[in-house]
Amino acid sequence: MNSIVTEIELVEDIIGSHKEHMGDQFLPYKNHVYRVLNFCFMFHEPSPEEADKLAIAAAFHDLGMWPGDQIDYLDPSIELARTYLLRTKRDEWVEEVSLMIEFHHRFRSCPKEFPQLVEVMRRGDWVDATKGFRRFGLKRTEIRRVQDTIENLGFHDNLVRITKKEFWKRPFNPLPMMKW
After folding, report:
1. Rounded CA gap, 116 and 44, in Å?
2. pLDDT higher at 166 or 34
3. CA distance 2 to 75
4. To 10 degrees, what angle do helices 94-102 and 48-60 make?
5. Pick from 117, 102, 127, 128: which is nearest to 30 by CA?
6. Spatial separation of the C-alpha atoms in residues 124 and 78, rounded to whole Å
7. Which residues 6+ apart lie within 8 Å of 30 measured at CB?
8. Alpha helix locations (H) across the chain?
9. What is the distance between the alpha carbons of residues 127 and 112, in angstroms, rounded to a whole number?
10. Fewest beta carbons less than 10 Å away: which of 18, 75, 142, 150?
C-alpha cells in the first residue's frame, strides 16, 4: 500500500483560506478531508490532474457547512468550489467537481454515465463518514492505518451535534444533504 498523504498544498491553500469561518472545526475538518482523500487514492490511483480534482472536491465537499453549522450545505459547497475553479482558470472542471460534491452522500452507486471520480469521491467519503463501517472492499487494516495516522479530533461528534440540532428544526427532513 502507498504511504498515507497528510499534506497537499492545494488542500492547505483552499482550507486555509476558510479557516476563520470554521472556528474550532478547522482541524477536525481538515483531517476529515485528508482521510477521505486517502480512501479515494486507495480506490483509484489518480493521474496528477485527477489528484487535483479530488483534492479540490474533497476540500470543498462539506465546506458550505460553515459558518453557522448549516446541514443543508451541498449547494453552498458547490458554489464555493465553482467560484474557486473559475478564479483559478479551471473552468472545464466545474461540472465534474460539482458532481463529486453533489453526490458524495448518495446511498447508492453513481450512474455509470457519471465521471469515475464522482463514485471514487462518494466511496471515500462514506468510508470516513461511517468510520469504516462501509468499506467498499477496503481492508479494515487499511482503514485503521489511515484513522490511526490522521486523527478524528471530534469531527464525527460535531456531525452528530449538528444533526441533532437540525432534527428539531426539520423533523421530517433532518438530513437534506443525503441522496438516494
Report:
1. 9
2. 34
3. 33
4. 50
5. 128
6. 18
7. 11, 15
8. 9-16, 19-22, 26-43, 48-60, 74-87, 94-102, 116-129, 140-149, 155-169
9. 20
10. 75
Quick one: cell of 167? 432534527
Contacts of 39 by beta carbon, 8 Å cutoff, 6+ apart: 123, 124, 125, 127, 128, 138, 143, 146
Predicted TM-score (pTM) of this structure: 0.90
80: cell is 464555493
Note the pLDDT tens digit of each residue in 47-87.
999 999 999 999 999 998 887 677 678 999 999 999 999 99
- Write the burial class of residue 147 (CB in 10 Å: 0-12 exposed, 13-18 middle, 19+ buried): middle
Dig out the grid coordinates for 151 from the structure.
486523527
Report residue 37 as a C-alpha cell. Answer: 482523500
**Cβ pair 75, 64 in contact under 8 A:** yes
Q: Which long-range contacts (CB under 8 A, 24 or more apart) does 130-134 make?
A: 131/156
Q: Which three cell numbers stand for residue 53?
A: 480534482
